[in-house]
Amino acid sequence: MSRLLAERGYQVVFQNCRGTFGSTGEFEPSRNEREDGLATLEWLATQPWFSGSVAMFGLSYYGYVQLASGAGAPDHLKALVSQMAASRVYGVLRGEPMRLDGALSRLYTTYNGHLATSLLDKDNRKLEARPDVLTFTGDPVRAATTTMGTVSASLRARSTLGHTDFFARLCEVAPKGTATNLCDGIIRLDQGGTQQVTISLTPTAHCFKRHR
Fold it and tell me: Distance of alpha carbon 164 from its chain centroid, rounded?
């Protein structure tokens, strides 16, 4: 993509996160991306060839870097093209929990430079068979049904630990039993005991075609 844009007359700057590939420093996931992104934007503004406008582009972790730098960025940042990136950047920056498989996939993409397998293509049956996972399956959908908007899961949970993560996932179950995840969310409780918990999942827009 960088070469394609450069061949069409655009000035292209490719930046790796600190501590990866040729960049100096130590790589600490989700720690320095905002600071480094803003520093790069300020540096661009001082270059004699700079036109006064800049757009960012990137997949997966590179997309997250854009979102981390976007809020409070200088006025010459005109556009972000963030693909397959975390939508809850605020929570990531504040140290809230995130999916392990999602984090590993983003790191895999960062270090290998190509698109990782989409998490939305995962069959959850093996995960659902674990003794610490509860599943609730609705009746089959008799006609194509489109759902769109925010999703949440409410439960009454009990824990004897001081810190406990509760995770919820919405799946589509195909006629052959394949359970494909559509959206999910996680919440951390900082005290034990019994509590009423509401987990906010990421928004979804999906058409169920005679599935569950």
Answer: 21
Contacts of 109 (CB under 8 A, 6+ apart): 59, 60, 61, 62, 84, 115, 116
Pairwise CA distance, residues 171 & 155, whole Å: 17
Residue in 68, 211, 75, 42 with CA at minimum distance from that of residue 140? 211
The residues with which 19 forms a beta bridge, in sequence order, are: none
Token digits for 85? 């990136």
Mean residue pLDDT across the chain:
76
Domains of the chain and any CATH numbers:
2-117 (no CATH), 123-208 (2.60.120.260)
Intra-chain end-to-end CA distance of the chain, in Å? 40
CA atoms of 143 and 146, how far apart (whole Å): 10
Report DSSP letters for 22-58, one per residue.
T--S---TTTSHHHHHHHHHHHHHTSTT--S-EEEEE
Tens digits of per-residue pLDDT, 107-125?
433 333 333 333 445 788 8
What percent of the chain clears pLDDT 90, i.e. is strictly above it?
Answer: 4
The CA–CA distances, whole Å, from 131 to 61, 127, 164 equal 32, 9, 17
Pairing mode of beta strands 164-173, 179-189: antiparallel
pLDDT at 44 > cutoff 70: yes
